[in-house]
């Protein structure tokens, strides 16, 4: 993913910035048409590699006195009043873009910047350098959705939006972080600010990071706990306010440069975005990807016809998915299981008509309450919350499926105990009451897993995320959890504001419109579940499925079984001498796990995907191979 990269050091110390910075920029430049800006001074080198769509003007941008400069990735919204206030205080704007505004905003409020920056609404990452004091300030948005990795050395600091740029410093020892590895296999993603690389960390969300004289400091300027819960509940007024704020969030993201499009699925969130676009911007291009005849395409096509968008479809096949595996592991740096990396062809197709994708990112969690099951809503204490989180996160991964057997004997005790410890440590630091139940998933699953699904897309398209509008977020999280659970208040808003696309068109998850009576929707879910169970039982006795399954837009389980080239690749990669010599896994148990899957006895695509991702990560980032 393009972004910022750089080095700051004490004068005279290694490394050679003039040699290292170009390598750092080049390694994250995936396309020849990217725009690269650099800044070099005696003790610092900074680079920005961008798509040239948002804030396309050359960076860095300086203030009037030339003593401060800024490089920025991302964007902010609706700051006209703040800018006019700065003008009234004597600030002069020449470029009139987001980074120039932020630079003057910092200059004016430097002493209490950590308090003022929370007023900025957007998804961003910026680095400000003080040419006089040689101080570097790096700041990200409230939610940490523009990743930045940090590597502190004895007398210098490396930072970058991608780990591979940091690894251009050949003095860095390439080692796997075992705690992060355990989390990856236990939960499908890494927690907190760890990475799979020892010695490299992720900048926490809502951070003002300062580096000066080889010392660093991080100030947290905002937290989810600052959002106050409302006391008075009037559902009709809540629905109206939710709808107003949603329309505002989408409208804000229709502004500025670039041609806007949207991926459109059979879910609620992408549909909510396209439904909220003012008619003056229509028609836009929309695109659905998936298996031929999948429910996502059928439903999205109906939505497109209703809203009169220019709709496209990209079929995902085993061959297409397999052809992009190594490329997407390289781009996502081992953080995302390969079975979730299926958008490459779709991104290329979307790029033909759009520069910016309006993304339904995390809408199901933010306003749909997808992690607010009864077990979470009714929690009375933090210990119960911890137990529920651990059980939910373990489901379907190594901890619940394989246990200690998958690891080599000398690794099992170390690895199998640390995953729960990681969750417990984070929760006891960050979660104050059971009402904060979503915050763990927002700071971990969303920021460490869900975000990686957009990273490969961001090599071609800018992504705007309306569900992460500050005003919308603050209102949604002021509501009692009961209103968000099971999409209750979300569904009410969607039906009232967008009846044409929600009242009668089904939801892919249930097969029924969200307006359907609960008993009918429940009965239909039961019917679909029975069909799925029947197919599963038939496979176990080596018979063909009875029912065609269109509910899922991918079919990794059968793709791994039926595609000969992919099947061979899995065996050759995971059971290779190179893989087994790493000493992490029990080769006999791993072979049995793969065999059981290939014979249809079990469905282990999720876990096989984790092993495949981790092995490819090792080859690329630990061994330094070019695949």
From TrEMBL:
Pfam families: Asn_synthase (PF00733), GATase_7 (PF13537). It comes from the Archaea. L-glutamine binds at residue 98. Transmembrane segments: none annotated. Keywords: ATP-binding, Glutamine amidotransferase, Ligase, Nucleotide-binding. Its EC number is 6.3.5.4. Residues 2-214 form the Glutamine amidotransferase type-2 domain. It is an enzyme of class 6 (ligase). GO terms for biological process: asparagine biosynthetic process. GO terms for molecular function: asparagine synthase (glutamine-hydrolyzing) activity; ATP binding. It catalyses: L-aspartate + L-glutamine + ATP + H2O = L-asparagine + L-glutamate + AMP + diphosphate + H(+). PROSITE patterns: GATASE_TYPE_2 (PS51278). InterPro entries: Asn_synth_AEB (IPR006426), Asn_synthase (IPR001962), ASN_synthetase/amidase (IPR051786), AsnB_N (IPR033738), GATase_2_dom (IPR017932), Ntn_hydrolases_N (IPR029055), Rossmann-like_a/b/a_fold (IPR014729). Belongs to the asparagine synthetase family. This is Putative asparagine synthetase [glutamine-hydrolyzing]. The lineage of its organism: Archaea, Methanobacteriati, Methanobacteriota, Stenosarchaea group, Methanomicrobia.
């Amino acid at each position: 993913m393009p972004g910022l990269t750089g080095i700051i050091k004490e004068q005279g110390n290694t490394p050679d910035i003039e040699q290292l910075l170009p390598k750092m920029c080049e390694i994250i430049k995936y396309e020849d048409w990217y725009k690269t800006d650099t800044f070099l001074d005696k003790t610092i080198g900074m680079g920005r590699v961008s798509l040239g769509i948002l804030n396309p003007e050359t960076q860095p941008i300086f203030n009037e006195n030339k003593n401060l400069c800024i490089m920025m990735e991302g964007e902010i919204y609706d700051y006209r009043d703040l800018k006019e206030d700065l003008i009234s205080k004597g600030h002069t704007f020449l470029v009139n873009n987001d980074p120039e505004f932020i630079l003057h905003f910092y200059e004016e409020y430097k002493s209490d910047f950590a308090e003022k920056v929370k007023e900025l609404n957007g998804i961003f990452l910026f680095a400000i350098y003080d040419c006089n004091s040689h101080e570097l300030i790096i700041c990200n948005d409230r939610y940490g959705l523009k990743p930045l990795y940090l590597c502190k050395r004895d007398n210098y600091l490396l930072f970058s939006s991608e780990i591979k740029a940091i690894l251009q410093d050949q003095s860095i020892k390439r080692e796997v972080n075992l705690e992060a590895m355990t989390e990856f296999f236990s939960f499908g993603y890494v927690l907190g600010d760890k990475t799979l690389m020892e010695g490299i960390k992720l900048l926490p969300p809502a951070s003002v990071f300062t580096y000066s004289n080889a010392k660093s400091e991080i100030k947290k300027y905002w937290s989810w706990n600052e959002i106050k819960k409302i006391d008075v509940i009037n559902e009709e007024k809540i629905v109206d306010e939710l709808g107003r704020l949603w329309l505002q969030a989408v409208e804000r993201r229709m502004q500025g440069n670039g041609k806007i499009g949207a991926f459109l699925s059979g879910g609620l969130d992408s549909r909510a975005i396209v439904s909220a676009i003012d008619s003056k911007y229509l028609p836009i291009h929309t695109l659905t990807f998936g298996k031929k005849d999948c429910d996502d395409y059928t439903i999205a096509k109906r939505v497109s016809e209703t809203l009169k968008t220019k709709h496209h479809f990209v079929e995902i096949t085993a061959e297409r998915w397999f052809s992009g595996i190594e490329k997407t592991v390289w781009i996502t740096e081992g953080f995302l299981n390969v079975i979730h990396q299926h958008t490459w062809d779709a991104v290329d197709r979307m790029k033909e008509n759009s520069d910016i994708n309006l993304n339904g990112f995390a809408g199901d969690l933010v306003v749909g309450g997808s992690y607010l099951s009864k077990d979470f809503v009714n929690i009375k204490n933090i210990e119960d919350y911890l137990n529920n989180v651990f059980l939910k996160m373990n489901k379907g991964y190594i901890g619940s499926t394989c246990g200690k057997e998958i690891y080599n004997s000398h690794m099992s005790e170390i690895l199998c105990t640390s995953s729960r410890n990681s969750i417990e440590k984070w929760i006891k630091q960050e979660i104050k009451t059971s009402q904060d139940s979503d915050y763990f998933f927002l700071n971990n699953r969303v920021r460490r897993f869900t975000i990686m699904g957009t990273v490969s897309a961001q090599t071609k398209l800018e992504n705007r995320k309306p569900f992460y509008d500050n005003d919308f977020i603050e209102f949604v999280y002021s509501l009692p959890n009961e209103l968000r659970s099971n999409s209750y208040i979300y569904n009410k808003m969607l039906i009232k504001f967008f009846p044409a696309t929600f009242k009668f068109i089904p939801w892919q998850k249930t097969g029924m419109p969200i307006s359907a009576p609960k008993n009918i929707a429940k009965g239909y879910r039961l019917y679909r579940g029975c069909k799925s169970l029947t197919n599963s039982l038939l496979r176990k006795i080596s018979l063909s499925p009875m029912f065609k399954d269109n509910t899922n837009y991918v079919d990794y389980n059968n793709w791994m079984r039926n595609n000969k080239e992919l099947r061979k690749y899995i065996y050759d990669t995971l059971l290779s001498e190179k893989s087994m010599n790493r000493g992490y896994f029990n080769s006999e148990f791993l072979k049995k796990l793969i065999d059981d899957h290939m014979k249809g006895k079990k469905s282990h695509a999720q876990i096989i995907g984790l092993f495949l991702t981790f092995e490819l990560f090792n080859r690329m980032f630990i061994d330094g191979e070019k695949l």
